[in-house]
Write a structure and sequence with these properties.
The chain has four helices and 13 strands. The chain is an alpha+beta fold. It has a single domain, classed as Jelly Rolls. Fe (ii) ion binds next to loops.
């Protein structure tokens, strides 16, 4: 992805979240200079180590509008860490119409995906096989506390206020329903490890390759190493 493109999506996200009255923590608006000042003071280790902040990805497909996800991790810990023992995580995400987050499952993470505003969010789910393929067995899910057993791969969508609980080992893909606009999506989960806990069916990687064609407007959580070393 080009940095100029990422900058544009972050500006768009700031406007969309503000319009939906979703406020982000102060560091969401920090400039590179502010990040550097805090890094020098040594008071933002936990933001960096827990991977908090902006996160834009094309999952390595280099076609963001079709396969991509926009995220901001608001809280998180580090699994099995005494230093960052927080066992829970929260994200806010923006999903575009027909923009797919490709099939993946988590070995460790259980997550609730919540439609918090905007358009409708569609899902397709499969149980995983031991060799990480799609199983054809029925999938058990909970939608806001109500249990459903649905056929493998059946598409369903959720509106504002509705949520789905995704358990470990369940392959999921999701996208915004055509004609309904950007979707503001929440995620509440156990502690999140995007470096080790995403088993993708086909996607090459979790974080994008970035071509630095302009300065970053905001740092991504995947930028901290590069810009704050
Ligand atoms: Fe997931």
């Amino acid at each position: 992805m080009k940095r100029s493109e990422i900058n544009q999506y972050i500006r768009e996200a700031e406007a969309f979240l503000a319009a939906n009255k979703f406020k982000l923590p102060p560091y969401a608006a920090w400039t590179l200079e502010q990040w550097k000042e805090h890094k020098a003071k040594g008071d933002i280790e936990s933001i960096i180590d827990c991977g908090l902040g902006w996160d834009v990805t094309d999952f390595g497909f280099e076609d963001y509008m079709k396969i991509g996800l926009f995220l901001f991790t608001i809280r998180n810990g580090v699994q099995h860490s005494e230093k960052y023992p927080k066992p829970y995580a929260e994200k806010i995400m923006i999903v575009r119409e027909k923009q797919v987050t490709p099939f993946h499952y988590h070995r460790f993470k259980m997550e609730d995906i919540i439609n918090r505003g905007g358009g409708r969010l569609a899902f397709r789910l499969y149980n995983s096989t031991p060799d990480n393929k799609l199983a054809d067995t029925p999938v058990t899910i909970y939608r806001d506390g109500v249990k459903y057993v649905i056929p493998a791969g059946e598409v369903f969508d959720i509106g504002n206020g509705e949520s789905v609980t995704l358990t470990q080992g369940v392959f999921h893909e999701f996208w915004g329903v055509e004609g309904t606009g950007l979707v503001m999506v929440g995620e509440v989960s156990v502690v999140n490890d995007d470096h080790n806990d995403n088993i993708f069916l086909e996607a090459p990687k979790r974080f994008p390759s970035i071509e630095e064609d302009e300065a970053p407007y905001r740092l991504l959580c995947s930028d901290y190493d590069k810009f704050l070393k």
